[in-house]
Design brief:
- There is one protein chain.
- This protein is mainly alpha-helical.
- It has 2 domains: 1-105, no CATH class; 114-245, no CATH class.
- It contains 8 helices and 2 strands.
- Strand 1 and strand 2 form a beta hairpin.
- Helix 6 (116-128) packs parallel to helix 8.
- It is elongated, with a radius of gyration of 38 Å.
- The N and C termini lie far apart (95 Å).
Length: 253
């Protein structure tokens, strides 16, 4: 990685640590990913992702006592930042965290209430990107929140009973789909682990058998070799005896 890129990464870290959570910082982050070199782009994206994970964890832990407004500003910034670097899992995790923060405070600040459609949009994004465990958590939270809320006015929008029922039905369907996907994956993992374990066990059982076969085969070959050597020695002995007899009695030839 070039010195100029290292300096840019250091500057981005400085902006985060000084809490410059505005659009200008996001635009600067986006500019860091403009590269003609694919290898450099992958390297920079990985470095930025690690930087964001480290800094976001530190900062989110440090604002636990701050106002909900400040928390949501920080969460929204990191949601956008992770989306820019392509870390969808972290992006979804922080989106979920922001929805939960809003829902917890909605009892005293009604404008923070998370609408059923917001929950549904989040669940759809989680399912679409294959994060079924996150989707299940969001579904359960959404169903609890929606179920506990009566028909109410949020700004100028009125949530009708029909819309609420349809949203609950769709979220339930997505929850069941995600649960089935998790179960299916779990069964596949268990089956794979079982087959791997049985293969290792069979290999352990086959090893002594192969060793015995190897020893038996070696013994058999050695036996044949010894037998052939005895035959050769006997033949050579007979030939020497015949030769000696012919030498002593030339007329026998």
């Amino acid at each position: 990685m070039s010195d100029s890129v290292e300096q840019q990464l250091s500057l981005f870290r400085y902006l985060i640590q000084t809490r410059s959570f505005g659009d200008s910082t996001l635009r600067f982050l986006d500019s860091l990913l403009v590269s003609k070199d694919v290898k450099s782009l992958v390297e920079i994206r990985s470095s930025l992702n690690q930087l964001l994970k480290s800094e976001s964890l530190s900062i989110i832990q440090s604002i636990t006592a701050e106002s909900v407004h400040n928390k949501l500003i920080v969460l929204d910034f990191f949601v956008c930042a992770f989306a820019i670097v392509g870390d969808l899992e972290s992006c979804l995790a922080l989106r979920y965290e922001a929805l939960v923060v809003r829902e917890l405070k909605s009892a005293t600040i009604q404008l923070l209430h998370v609408s059923p459609l917001e929950w549904l949009n989040f669940v759809e994004d989680a399912v679409k990107n294959g994060f079924h465990a996150v989707a299940v958590k969001a579904c359960e939270n959404a169903l609890r929140c929606i179920g506990n809320s009566d028909v109410q006015k949020l700004g100028r929008d009125v949530i009708s009973d029909n819309l609420k029922a349809n949203t609950i039905s769709e979220i339930t369907r997505l929850r069941n789909f995600s649960l089935a996907s998790i179960t299916s994956r779990s069964v596949q993992v268990q089956a794979t682990e079982y087959l791997e374990r049985k293969t290792r066990e069979q290999q352990k059982l086959d090893l002594p058998y192969k060793e015995k076969r190897c020893l038996a085969s070696t013994s058999f070959r050695n036996g044949i070799k010894r037998q052939n050597m005895r035959k050769l020695y006997k033949r050579q002995t007979l030939l020497r005896a015949n030769s000696e007899m012919q030498g002593q009695h030339p007329n026998l030839s």
